[in-house]
Amino acid sequence: MESWPPGGSGPAEAGRRPRGLRGADLAASASLLSGAGAEAGCSAPAVAAVLPAGGSGERMGVPTPKQFCPILERPLISYTLQALERVSWIKDIVVAVTGENMEAMKCIIQRYQHKGISLVESGVTRHRSIFNGLKALAEDQPNCRLSKPEVVIIHDAVRPFVEEDVLLKVVTAAKEHGCSDYDLEFGTECLHLALKYCHIKAKLIEGSPDLWKVTYKRDLYAAESIIKERISQQICVVMDTKEDEEHVGHRLEEMLKNELNHVKVTSGRDIQQIILEQCYNFVCVNVMTSDFEETQKLLNMLEESNLSILYPVVVISVQFLDYESVPFGQKMENLMQIREFAKEVKKRNILLYGLLVYYPQDEQKLQESLRQGATIIAALIKERNSGLVGQLLVA
Amino acid sequence: MESWPPGGSGPAEAGRRPRGLRGADLAASASLLSGAGAEAGCSAPAVAAVLPAGGSGERMGVPTPKQFCPILERPLISYTLQALERVSWIKDIVVAVTGENMEAMKCIIQRYQHKGISLVESGVTRHRSIFNGLKALAEDQPNCRLSKPEVVIIHDAVRPFVEEDVLLKVVTAAKEHGCSDYDLEFGTECLHLALKYCHIKAKLIEGSPDLWKVTYKRDLYAAESIIKERISQQICVVMDTKEDEEHVGHRLEEMLKNELNHVKVTSGRDIQQIILEQCYNFVCVNVMTSDFEETQKLLNMLEESNLSILYPVVVISVQFLDYESVPFGQKMENLMQIREFAKEVKKRNILLYGLLVYYPQDEQKLQESLRQGATIIAALIKERNSGLVGQLLVA
Q1: Which of A329, A336, A382 sits opposite B330 (nearest CB)?
Q2: Which GO MF terms are attached to this record (chains A, B) (predicted)?
């Protein structure tokens, strides 16, 4: 995994803090980078990003600096890195963190398998941190894998929801206007400095409402809800039978579609493909079988796919209860082994729940239990509550 | 219930929109109210509040105006009214809503039992709405129960977390500085108007970070999480036995205290008193009995108390399973009647869940099941998921 330069030569070891530079040098220094990528014969990436992440998060009212606060158990900065990594034309990302947090940051990069990230030590101010990041990009050392970029995006580590289109606007404007440093906050000091000290005109790019900054504790709550909502937009229904289109499994699927009309409900014909499409919710419907064999197959596929590295994946194993064949108590007892499965897969960030749906002869009652089943499935997917894994719910 | 003036004479029927007034008249008009409460022999309340709530919530990206968006199924504006009602020295609250939303607003006032609220029709701008509210307070009609206040607080309907201390600062400053209209937003148009047109000096009062405005959809998420957190700060444990301090119920209580160290865990000696203190979480531990009699008593008390009018109350009925006496399946079957209770009390905003805790002889295993029980209780209280009511969870 290429996560940060190993050994002592890369910017990860950047105790080499620039001496005696004023904040104003930041923008000037950044401007030196401009045009570097346009040199003839240079295969360097056109765009890089610098993330100042040395803040202490005082306003948050929590002891952890906000960029390291967990959302669904993953630190906020990892979401921001993910957002930037998704943009294919950002070749290098330099993160400036305090020496104190350097090791923790390395662990984050490794655990969440971030690629193309370099670390530098942050400065005492945000501008110093940015400067250190720019310096790492500007240095053309033999052992350094970083290359001089044409444009450098300065992006806050605590703005996790940045979209490619906004970044593209920034880069396009940077190229057109010759600016060297962009920041999307109105009235930011960076903009002020660029206007004051550079012989170039800074341009303000309108951000989207998504581009907000996690500042207070309430913003962490909001971020968590937004992330939960985003990964709950698709549900894959996996059946243990494919023949009978009329059976109760398909009826449950239809009910899910009706109840969750904003959610895409996919039939799991090709689960590998659906995993590749990053669906984080699976409903494994067992009609023909009354064990966890099908669920186990699905869990194996999920484990192999590494899908759950970034987000918790919800798997709901559904069984039906026909009172006439097996008594409720016995059925429950048989299914309690789900607790052990759940405990095991929880370690790999897969949240497994069981759902037992009554299957009465009476059509109206069946309709009702299917509806309740859909409600429970929706609730489990929406909340992604890790405290309830292994539970067997009854509809 | 005194919720809005009945009949056609009160400001609820305020189709009487002021003619030809400019925005600037607002502050001037407001200044007329200043000192009204100080008149000799006047028993009028000293302070009133006007809530402009006629906005359409365009930025929210949802069809419902943001002040009517539900949080835990209750409209946002009801939380704001609750925050103002709690302040004993605010005698009158005037809400300005569009004619279209007048009936909905009346329903909200009735359903959540808000007191001392008057309704006026909002204007086409925020200032017009405020003006209409002030006008209702200034009018000294015989049929109008409103009295001229000394100070009027203008408060956004979408700032639900306003605290008494901030309001008190505003009122104190208003009295000292003679200002008639205060708004806590820096650079607000109200402040601008007051400075421009009034011969008084407006004073800016520093708000708290809690005083934020629900503007975007993410703010609704944040508000919901904050409210959930606030009502989860206290758990009352009710036991069906009081003698043996060593028994498993007390051990579960101790485990809860350890696991949830930020939460106040109260023993339910005097449940009526605890209900009065507005505790919204109850764990009913059944050690001596294996039915729902104790839970039913608690539910009856909660229903009589009306505690659940404003927030959903969580009740978790805990049973223990001693494998040697009753088989698991049979125990589960016996306890399934909780589903019916839960369905019934859900109608009154009480969220009932069941929890079956294994009671093995092995001390280490018992410790483990108690810990898991505490985790499940914490998860249920934190999420307050209405989709899972009536479920029987197993620790």
Answers
A1: A329
A2: D-ribitol-5-phosphate cytidylyltransferase activity
CATH no. for A11-225? 3.90.550.10
Could you read off the pLDDT of B2-50 as tens digits, one per residue?
A: 333 333 333 333 333 333 322 223 333 333 333 333 333 333 347 999 9
CB B226 within 8 A of CB B83: no
Q: Of all residues in chain A, what percent carry a pLDDT higher than 70?
A: 78
Indicate where chain A has its CATH 3.40.50.720 domain(s). 231-394
Min CA distance, B371 vs chain A (Å)? 11
All CATH 3.90.550.10 domain ranges in chain B, comma separated = 11-227
In the predicted model, residues of chain B with pLDDT beneath 50 are: 1-45, 180-187
CATH 3.90.550.10-classified regions of chain A: 11-225
- Please tell me the distance in Å from B254's CA to the nearest CA on chain A: 19
Judged by CB atoms closer than 8 Å, whether chains meet at A328 and B330 is answered as: no
Q: How many CB pairs under 8 A join A and B?
A: 98
Interchain CB contact of A365 with B (< 8 Å): no
How close are the terminal C-alpha atoms of chain B, in Å? 45
CB atoms within 10 A of CB B165: 10
In Å, what is the CA distance from B40 to each residue of A236, B35, B350?
Answer: 73, 11, 49
pLDDT in tens, A285-324: 998 887 899 999 999 999 999 999 999 999 999 999 887 7
> Judged by CB atoms within 8 Å, which residues 182-211 of B form the interface with A?
209
CB contact under 8 A, B222 and A221: yes
| Residue B362 burial by Cβ neighbours in a 10 Å radius (0-12, 13-18, 19+) | exposed
- Contact in structure between A121 and A99 (CB atoms under 8 Å): yes
Nearest to B329 among A223, A225, A332 (CB): A332
From the candidate CATH numbers 3.90.550.10, 3.40.50.10320, 3.40.50.1400, 3.40.50.970, the one assigned to the domain spanning B11-227: 3.90.550.10
Q: Do A225 and B218 touch (CB under 8 A)?
A: yes
- pLDDT tens digit sequence for A34-59: 333 333 333 434 799 999 999 876 66
Candidate from B222, B223, B329 with C-beta closest to A330: B329
Q: Which CATH code fits B231-394?
A: 3.40.50.720
Is A207's pLDDT higher than 90? no
What mean pLDDT comes out for the span A186-197? 56
For residues A85 and A148, what is the distance between their CA atoms, to the nearest angstrom? 18
CA-nearest residue to A395 within chain B is B391
Kindly state the average pLDDT of the residues A368-389. Answer: 96
The ipTM assigned to this model is 0.82
